[in-house]
Amino acid sequence: MKKVLLALSLALILAVSVAAYGASAIFATRDQVVYTEERFFGDPSALEGVTVNVRTTENYQLYWNSTFSPAHPELQHTEYEFFGVEAYDRFQTGKRELWEYGGLSLFSYPSKSLDYAEEHIHENPAPLAQAYRDLAKGMTPGQDASREILLKDYMEFYPLDYGMFAPEVDSFGTGVEGYEQYSEEYICAWLENYFRIPVLEDEYCEISVNRTDGEYISGWGFGSANTGDRFAMGTMSAVTREAAYFFFDAHSDSGKLVDLSLLPDGFGVYRLPFTDISLEGVTGSGRVVKCVDVHELEMICPLDPNMRLRDLTIDYQLEQLMVHSIEEGTYYITFVDMATGAVLQKLPVMAAEEGVVSRYQFEDFWVLVNHFTNEVAVITADGAGGHKVALLTGGMPEANDGAFLYPDIMAFDGQRLVMGSPEFGARWSGSGSDLYITAFDSTGLIYHGLWQSSLNYGLKNHSAVVSMEEWRTLSLE
Predict the structure, then answer these.
(1) Which residue, 340, 363, 449, 438, is CA-closest to 393?
(2) What are the structural domain ranges in the chain?
(3) Which residues of the chain, if any, have pLDDT below 70?
(4) Of 282, 421, 430, 454, which is most buried with the most CB atoms under 10 A?
């Protein structure tokens, strides 16, 4: 049976910023970059059809665009360019994918409104400020004191803090002065009133103060106590150009379900739309600003709060939300129609207890890596409006520098999943442009190796920085 190999192309753009160095070092390596293999598992012949493109820059003036095939390492080519001035945008596409935006951030914040620079905390109206005033009573000037407090003695509901990271959205209304409902303060107050979650009966905090002359408190501290339970509300979110979608895990640190009885629409997936505001007539500019319309917040899809929710992503092509959860030892993705909130499919993906499952999203496939079972799953559309597990395999490589934990780019041809990742030290300490290449098929791991760049060894005082997200490219040929 004739096998048809779909060409894979991995393109990894690594931006390297370094101090000036001697001309001899430059000229020795500038024309052709050579990548050599350090093999850990398998044979590079398993990567037939894979092409790797690595772009590096020196001081944003020297640029190397190198291409090679791991299956045919003799076929390597580098295009070199020099610019008299810094060409910062040489490898930038200027495009950020929608799934790279963090969306809405909403989290519990007991010490909200307490200003660390506030010396007159006795005038602060924040609920927790009274706890500091109580502690400061009877203290002598220059004295330090600390104690644990029961949080519900000072507040009934959790104060919340809000943030938004969405494309072309004025998240805090800074560009629409005069429209109070789009301001950060208004949005946060509205969300606080909507998500009224009673403080746990046994949540403690530790506070500390330093007393100065008179009634003044010169310093104070706040932290979680080792006593009791704790609820740290944190959202999982995804965005389109029209709205942010989000939910939160309703469990405390001990696994207890918090009180959700006061949520006006119940617990589930929430949609917070954006709206266009024309500034004509306000500033006379005619400029249109996209703002958060908190009045249109709605719960569109009910969820069982007992679920251990793990992530929220979007299939932008099929316009479906993807609710990631762990239920009874299985990792599920529930697909939800973005327009109606109707549940379309609940897909079991892999075995997963409470642990770390990394998730990666690309234009037309998703990858899950279970770091406890060493399983790797690839999710794709099934061609009939739904989704399928296109690949489920095991055999993660040994922790060679931990590279497989942090892949930057991937390619999938229906049979093979290929990962590309900068060398671990380069990612965290900035010390090179080597990269790991790792590949899987239905039998498990088929290749894992480190490809080392001659740039790392031909340049002195080399200090590399992995490129920003929008500098990376990935293509399938």
Answers:
(1) 438
(2) 1-94+353-477, 98-265
(3) 1-30, 88, 90-96, 113-123, 212-220, 280-286, 354-355, 397-406, 423-432, 457-477
(4) 421
- What are phi and psi for residue 129, nearest 5 degrees? -60, -30
CA dist 98 and 241 (Å) reads 8
**Non-local CB neighbours of 278 within 8 Å, separated by 6+ positions:** 286, 287, 288
Query: What is the widest separation between alpha-carbon atoms in the chain?
Result: 89
- Non-local (6+) Cβ contacts of 397 within 8 A are 40, 41, 404, 438, 445, 448
